[in-house]
Design a protein that fits this description.
It is built from 13 helices and 12 strands. The protein has helices at about 5-15, 60-70, 95-100, 110-115, 120-135, 140-150, 155-160, 170-180, 200-215, 230-235, 250-255, 260-270, 310-315, and strands spanning about 15-30, 35-45, 50-55, 75-85, 85-90, 105-110, 190, 220-225, 235-240, 245-250, 320, 330. Helix 5 packs across helix 6. The longest helix has 18 residues, at about 200-215. Residues about 1-15 and about 340-350 have low confidence and may be disordered.
Amino acid sequence: MTTVERAAASSAAVGTPVLDVRDLSVSFTTEGGTVSAVDRVNLDLASGEIVGMVGESGCGKSVTAMSIAGLLPDSARVSGSVRLEGTELVGARESVLRRVRGKEIAYIFQEPMTSLNPVLTVGRQIGEVLQVHERMSKRAARARAVELLSLVGIPSAAKRVDNYPHQLSGGMRQRVMIAMAVACGPKVLVADEPTTALDVTVQAGILQVLRDLRDRLGTTILVITHDLGVIADIADRVVVMYAGRVVEQAPVTDLFAHPYHRYTAGLLAASPTPGKHAGTERLQEIPGLVPVLSIQPDACTFADRCPAADARCREAAPPLEAVGTAVTDHLAACWHPCPAPRTQPQETTA
Protein backbone atom coordinates (compact mmCIF):
# COMPACT_ATOMS: atom_id res chain seq x y z
CA MET A 1 0.00 0.00 0.00
CA THR A 2 1.38 3.40 -0.98
CA THR A 3 1.64 6.38 1.38
CA VAL A 4 -1.24 8.14 -0.40
CA GLU A 5 -3.39 5.01 -0.11
CA ARG A 6 -2.58 4.75 3.62
CA ALA A 7 -3.66 8.38 4.06
CA ALA A 8 -6.91 7.63 2.23
CA ALA A 9 -7.46 4.60 4.48
CA SER A 10 -6.85 6.79 7.54
CA SER A 11 -9.43 9.28 6.31
CA ALA A 12 -11.84 6.45 5.56
CA ALA A 13 -11.52 5.24 9.13
CA VAL A 14 -12.98 8.55 10.30
CA GLY A 15 -15.79 8.51 7.75
CA THR A 16 -16.52 6.71 4.50
CA PRO A 17 -15.03 8.71 1.61
CA VAL A 18 -17.78 10.34 -0.41
CA LEU A 19 -15.44 11.52 -3.16
CA ASP A 20 -12.31 9.60 -4.19
CA VAL A 21 -9.94 11.16 -6.74
CA ARG A 22 -7.01 9.09 -8.01
CA ASP A 23 -4.22 10.07 -10.40
CA LEU A 24 -6.26 12.94 -11.86
CA SER A 25 -4.41 14.72 -14.67
CA VAL A 26 -5.70 17.55 -16.87
CA SER A 27 -4.10 19.20 -19.88
CA PHE A 28 -5.40 21.75 -22.37
CA THR A 29 -4.80 22.08 -26.08
CA THR A 30 -4.20 25.75 -26.93
CA GLU A 31 -2.99 27.71 -29.93
CA GLY A 32 0.42 27.91 -28.29
CA GLY A 33 0.57 24.17 -27.62
CA THR A 34 -0.32 21.83 -24.78
CA VAL A 35 -0.59 23.16 -21.21
CA SER A 36 -0.42 20.75 -18.28
CA ALA A 37 -2.71 22.08 -15.53
CA VAL A 38 -3.11 19.15 -13.13
CA ASP A 39 -0.70 16.27 -12.60
CA ARG A 40 -1.65 13.01 -10.86
CA VAL A 41 -3.68 14.53 -8.05
CA ASN A 42 -4.98 12.21 -5.33
CA LEU A 43 -7.72 13.46 -3.05
CA ASP A 44 -10.39 11.95 -0.83
CA LEU A 45 -13.22 13.65 1.03
CA ALA A 46 -14.93 11.93 3.95
CA SER A 47 -18.57 12.46 4.82
CA GLY A 48 -19.07 15.73 6.69
CA GLU A 49 -15.45 16.82 6.22
CA ILE A 50 -14.32 20.29 5.18
CA VAL A 51 -11.14 20.15 3.09
CA GLY A 52 -9.29 23.31 2.08
CA MET A 53 -7.27 23.53 -1.13
CA VAL A 54 -4.73 26.36 -1.28
CA GLY A 55 -2.05 27.69 -3.59
CA GLU A 56 -1.20 30.68 -5.76
CA SER A 57 -3.24 31.58 -8.83
CA GLY A 58 -2.38 29.17 -11.63
CA CYS A 59 -1.62 26.20 -9.37
CA GLY A 60 -4.50 24.09 -10.71
CA LYS A 61 -6.97 24.38 -7.82
CA SER A 62 -10.02 25.46 -9.82
CA VAL A 63 -9.22 23.13 -12.73
CA THR A 64 -9.10 20.23 -10.29
CA ALA A 65 -12.47 21.23 -8.85
CA MET A 66 -14.13 21.78 -12.23
CA SER A 67 -12.90 18.44 -13.56
CA ILE A 68 -14.64 16.57 -10.75
CA ALA A 69 -18.08 17.06 -12.33
CA GLY A 70 -16.89 17.32 -15.94
CA LEU A 71 -17.26 21.10 -16.22
CA LEU A 72 -14.13 21.70 -18.30
CA PRO A 73 -14.26 22.76 -21.98
CA ASP A 74 -13.75 20.38 -24.91
CA SER A 75 -10.10 21.44 -25.18
CA ALA A 76 -9.37 19.69 -21.86
CA ARG A 77 -8.01 16.16 -21.75
CA VAL A 78 -8.79 14.46 -18.45
CA SER A 79 -7.36 11.16 -17.22
CA GLY A 80 -7.44 9.31 -13.94
CA SER A 81 -10.41 8.46 -11.74
CA VAL A 82 -13.07 10.45 -9.89
CA ARG A 83 -15.52 8.30 -7.95
CA LEU A 84 -18.56 9.65 -6.17
CA GLU A 85 -19.64 6.93 -3.74
CA GLY A 86 -18.28 4.34 -6.17
CA THR A 87 -19.69 5.88 -9.36
CA GLU A 88 -16.98 6.75 -11.91
CA LEU A 89 -17.36 10.28 -13.31
CA VAL A 90 -14.31 10.55 -15.60
CA GLY A 91 -15.52 9.48 -19.03
CA ALA A 92 -19.14 9.19 -17.89
CA ARG A 93 -21.95 9.97 -20.33
CA GLU A 94 -23.22 13.55 -20.36
CA SER A 95 -26.64 12.38 -19.17
CA VAL A 96 -25.01 10.88 -16.07
CA LEU A 97 -23.03 14.05 -15.39
CA ARG A 98 -26.15 16.21 -15.75
CA ARG A 99 -27.88 14.18 -13.04
CA VAL A 100 -24.83 14.55 -10.77
CA ARG A 101 -24.37 18.29 -11.23
CA GLY A 102 -26.45 20.29 -8.80
CA LYS A 103 -28.00 17.24 -7.13
CA GLU A 104 -24.95 15.21 -6.01
CA ILE A 105 -22.13 17.74 -6.51
CA ALA A 106 -22.88 21.45 -6.31
CA TYR A 107 -20.67 24.50 -6.83
CA ILE A 108 -20.45 27.96 -5.30
CA PHE A 109 -18.50 30.18 -7.65
CA GLN A 110 -16.35 33.19 -6.93
CA GLU A 111 -18.51 36.04 -8.23
CA PRO A 112 -22.28 35.63 -7.78
CA MET A 113 -23.16 38.48 -10.16
CA THR A 114 -21.69 36.47 -13.05
CA SER A 115 -23.54 33.32 -11.95
CA LEU A 116 -26.98 34.74 -11.15
CA ASN A 117 -29.35 35.74 -13.94
CA PRO A 118 -29.94 39.51 -13.59
CA VAL A 119 -33.45 39.41 -15.12
CA LEU A 120 -34.89 36.65 -12.89
CA THR A 121 -35.76 36.88 -9.22
CA VAL A 122 -33.57 34.89 -6.85
CA GLY A 123 -36.60 32.83 -5.82
CA ARG A 124 -37.24 31.77 -9.38
CA GLN A 125 -33.60 30.82 -9.89
CA ILE A 126 -33.56 28.66 -6.77
CA GLY A 127 -36.93 27.21 -7.78
CA GLU A 128 -35.60 26.15 -11.19
CA VAL A 129 -33.03 23.94 -9.52
CA LEU A 130 -35.75 22.23 -7.48
CA GLN A 131 -38.10 21.87 -10.44
CA VAL A 132 -35.42 20.24 -12.62
CA HIS A 133 -33.82 17.90 -10.09
CA GLU A 134 -36.61 17.31 -7.55
CA ARG A 135 -39.60 17.55 -9.93
CA MET A 136 -41.32 20.03 -7.60
CA SER A 137 -44.28 22.12 -8.65
CA LYS A 138 -43.76 25.85 -9.08
CA ARG A 139 -45.61 26.62 -5.84
CA ALA A 140 -43.71 24.00 -3.81
CA ALA A 141 -40.40 25.18 -5.26
CA ARG A 142 -41.13 28.76 -4.23
CA ALA A 143 -41.99 27.69 -0.68
CA ARG A 144 -38.81 25.66 -0.50
CA ALA A 145 -36.82 28.63 -1.84
CA VAL A 146 -38.05 30.74 1.09
CA GLU A 147 -36.93 27.99 3.50
CA LEU A 148 -33.49 27.84 1.86
CA LEU A 149 -33.02 31.61 2.04
CA SER A 150 -33.82 31.43 5.74
CA LEU A 151 -31.40 28.50 6.13
CA VAL A 152 -28.49 30.56 4.79
CA GLY A 153 -29.29 33.52 7.03
CA ILE A 154 -31.09 35.96 4.74
CA PRO A 155 -33.55 38.04 6.82
CA SER A 156 -37.15 38.54 5.66
CA ALA A 157 -36.77 35.60 3.29
CA ALA A 158 -40.44 35.71 2.22
CA LYS A 159 -39.84 39.21 0.80
CA ARG A 160 -36.30 38.69 -0.46
CA VAL A 161 -37.42 35.72 -2.56
CA ASP A 162 -38.93 38.21 -5.05
CA ASN A 163 -35.80 40.39 -5.23
CA TYR A 164 -33.53 40.57 -8.25
CA PRO A 165 -29.77 40.05 -7.77
CA HIS A 166 -28.96 43.76 -8.13
CA GLN A 167 -31.25 44.51 -5.18
CA LEU A 168 -29.08 42.46 -2.82
CA SER A 169 -25.69 43.17 -1.27
CA GLY A 170 -22.62 41.15 -2.24
CA GLY A 171 -22.82 39.03 0.87
CA MET A 172 -26.52 38.32 0.37
CA ARG A 173 -25.95 37.37 -3.27
CA GLN A 174 -23.32 34.88 -2.13
CA ARG A 175 -25.81 33.46 0.36
CA VAL A 176 -28.30 33.06 -2.50
CA MET A 177 -25.64 31.09 -4.40
CA ILE A 178 -25.19 28.86 -1.36
CA ALA A 179 -28.96 28.36 -1.12
CA MET A 180 -29.07 27.29 -4.77
CA ALA A 181 -26.11 24.96 -4.26
CA VAL A 182 -27.65 23.13 -1.28
CA ALA A 183 -31.22 23.12 -2.62
CA CYS A 184 -31.09 19.43 -3.55
CA GLY A 185 -29.01 18.29 -0.59
CA PRO A 186 -25.78 17.52 -2.49
CA LYS A 187 -23.28 15.07 -1.07
CA VAL A 188 -20.35 17.32 -2.04
CA LEU A 189 -20.27 21.12 -2.09
CA VAL A 190 -17.38 22.81 -3.92
CA ALA A 191 -16.82 26.43 -2.86
CA ASP A 192 -14.41 28.15 -5.25
CA GLU A 193 -13.13 31.36 -3.61
CA PRO A 194 -16.48 31.90 -1.83
CA THR A 195 -15.32 34.95 0.16
CA THR A 196 -13.33 36.88 -2.46
CA ALA A 197 -14.12 40.63 -2.57
CA LEU A 198 -16.21 40.45 0.60
CA ASP A 199 -15.34 42.49 3.69
CA VAL A 200 -14.18 40.70 6.82
CA THR A 201 -17.50 40.67 8.67
CA VAL A 202 -19.42 39.40 5.62
CA GLN A 203 -16.70 36.82 5.01
CA ALA A 204 -17.07 35.52 8.56
CA GLY A 205 -20.82 35.19 8.02
CA ILE A 206 -20.37 33.17 4.82
CA LEU A 207 -17.91 30.81 6.52
CA GLN A 208 -20.34 30.34 9.40
CA VAL A 209 -23.07 29.40 6.92
CA LEU A 210 -20.79 26.73 5.43
CA ARG A 211 -19.98 25.38 8.89
CA ASP A 212 -23.68 25.26 9.78
CA LEU A 213 -24.46 23.35 6.56
CA ARG A 214 -21.83 20.79 7.45
CA ASP A 215 -23.10 20.45 11.00
CA ARG A 216 -26.82 20.39 10.19
CA LEU A 217 -26.87 18.57 6.85
CA GLY A 218 -23.63 16.56 6.98
CA THR A 219 -22.46 18.12 3.70
CA THR A 220 -18.91 17.39 2.56
CA ILE A 221 -17.25 20.65 1.51
CA LEU A 222 -14.20 21.40 -0.63
CA VAL A 223 -13.09 25.03 -0.13
CA ILE A 224 -10.72 26.47 -2.73
CA THR A 225 -8.94 29.66 -1.79
CA HIS A 226 -5.62 31.48 -1.70
CA ASP A 227 -6.50 32.95 1.70
CA LEU A 228 -4.82 30.96 4.46
CA GLY A 229 -6.93 32.78 7.04
CA VAL A 230 -10.06 31.24 5.54
CA ILE A 231 -8.45 27.80 5.66
CA ALA A 232 -7.41 28.21 9.30
CA ASP A 233 -10.95 29.28 10.18
CA ILE A 234 -12.99 26.57 8.49
CA ALA A 235 -11.00 23.56 7.23
CA ASP A 236 -10.42 20.21 8.92
CA ARG A 237 -7.69 19.23 6.47
CA VAL A 238 -5.55 21.15 3.98
CA VAL A 239 -4.26 20.24 0.52
CA VAL A 240 -1.52 22.50 -0.86
CA MET A 241 -1.10 22.61 -4.65
CA TYR A 242 1.75 23.96 -6.74
CA ALA A 243 2.11 23.82 -10.54
CA GLY A 244 -0.65 21.22 -10.83
CA ARG A 245 0.68 18.89 -8.13
CA VAL A 246 -0.25 18.25 -4.51
CA VAL A 247 2.90 19.15 -2.57
CA GLU A 248 1.58 18.85 0.98
CA GLN A 249 -1.47 17.50 2.78
CA ALA A 250 -2.19 17.54 6.50
CA PRO A 251 -4.75 18.25 9.22
CA VAL A 252 -5.11 22.01 9.47
CA THR A 253 -3.58 22.39 12.93
CA ASP A 254 -0.54 20.30 11.98
CA LEU A 255 0.07 22.19 8.76
CA PHE A 256 -0.01 25.60 10.41
CA ALA A 257 2.08 24.42 13.35
CA HIS A 258 4.74 22.85 11.15
CA PRO A 259 4.74 23.06 7.35
CA TYR A 260 7.22 20.60 5.85
CA HIS A 261 7.22 21.66 2.21
CA ARG A 262 9.24 24.79 1.44
CA TYR A 263 6.40 26.17 -0.67
CA THR A 264 3.90 25.84 2.18
CA ALA A 265 6.36 27.52 4.52
CA GLY A 266 6.71 30.34 1.99
CA LEU A 267 2.95 30.83 1.79
CA LEU A 268 2.67 31.05 5.57
CA ALA A 269 5.61 33.46 5.78
CA ALA A 270 3.94 35.68 3.16
CA SER A 271 0.76 35.96 5.23
CA PRO A 272 0.45 38.87 7.67
CA THR A 273 0.58 37.99 11.36
CA PRO A 274 -1.12 40.30 13.91
CA GLY A 275 1.51 42.25 15.80
CA LYS A 276 4.43 40.86 13.81
CA HIS A 277 3.79 42.87 10.66
CA ALA A 278 2.39 46.05 12.23
CA GLY A 279 4.74 48.33 10.32
CA THR A 280 7.92 46.81 11.77
CA GLU A 281 8.56 43.82 9.51
CA ARG A 282 8.07 43.30 5.80
CA LEU A 283 6.16 40.31 4.53
CA GLN A 284 8.39 37.65 3.02
CA GLU A 285 7.62 37.05 -0.63
CA ILE A 286 8.29 33.92 -2.68
CA PRO A 287 10.51 35.01 -5.59
CA GLY A 288 9.45 34.14 -9.12
CA LEU A 289 6.16 32.95 -10.60
CA VAL A 290 4.26 29.69 -10.93
CA PRO A 291 5.55 28.03 -14.13
CA VAL A 292 3.30 27.31 -17.11
CA LEU A 293 4.22 23.78 -18.15
CA SER A 294 3.66 21.98 -21.44
CA ILE A 295 4.66 18.71 -19.81
CA GLN A 296 5.23 17.78 -16.20
CA PRO A 297 8.97 17.29 -15.61
CA ASP A 298 10.50 14.47 -13.60
CA ALA A 299 11.73 17.04 -11.10
CA CYS A 300 10.48 19.26 -8.31
CA THR A 301 8.51 22.04 -10.02
CA PHE A 302 9.28 24.40 -7.14
CA ALA A 303 13.06 24.00 -7.47
CA ASP A 304 13.66 27.28 -9.34
CA ARG A 305 12.01 29.24 -6.51
CA CYS A 306 13.26 27.19 -3.56
CA PRO A 307 16.22 28.32 -1.42
CA ALA A 308 17.04 24.72 -0.50
CA ALA A 309 17.00 23.27 -4.03
CA ASP A 310 19.96 21.23 -5.26
CA ALA A 311 20.78 18.93 -8.18
CA ARG A 312 18.57 16.14 -6.82
CA CYS A 313 15.53 18.43 -6.85
CA ARG A 314 16.08 19.16 -10.55
CA GLU A 315 16.66 15.53 -11.53
CA ALA A 316 13.83 13.65 -9.81
CA ALA A 317 10.29 14.46 -8.63
CA PRO A 318 9.89 13.87 -4.88
CA PRO A 319 7.07 11.48 -3.92
CA LEU A 320 4.20 12.56 -1.72
CA GLU A 321 4.92 10.62 1.45
CA ALA A 322 4.52 10.72 5.20
CA VAL A 323 6.80 13.11 7.08
CA GLY A 324 7.52 13.62 10.75
CA THR A 325 7.26 11.01 13.43
CA ALA A 326 4.10 11.67 15.45
CA VAL A 327 1.61 12.42 12.66
CA THR A 328 1.16 9.73 10.03
CA ASP A 329 -1.41 11.63 7.92
CA HIS A 330 0.91 14.57 7.23
CA LEU A 331 2.25 14.13 3.68
CA ALA A 332 4.77 16.24 1.79
CA ALA A 333 6.56 15.97 -1.56
CA CYS A 334 9.94 17.49 -0.77
CA TRP A 335 13.54 16.20 -0.86
CA HIS A 336 14.56 18.79 1.75
CA PRO A 337 11.59 19.29 4.09
CA CYS A 338 11.66 22.06 6.65
CA PRO A 339 13.28 20.82 9.86
CA ALA A 340 11.03 19.75 12.69
CA PRO A 341 10.64 22.29 15.49
CA ARG A 342 12.90 21.69 18.44
CA THR A 343 11.26 20.28 21.51
CA GLN A 344 11.86 22.06 24.77
CA PRO A 345 14.18 20.06 27.08
CA GLN A 346 12.57 18.98 30.30
CA GLU A 347 13.97 20.39 33.51
CA THR A 348 15.62 17.95 35.82
CA THR A 349 15.88 18.13 39.56
CA ALA A 350 18.83 16.98 41.59
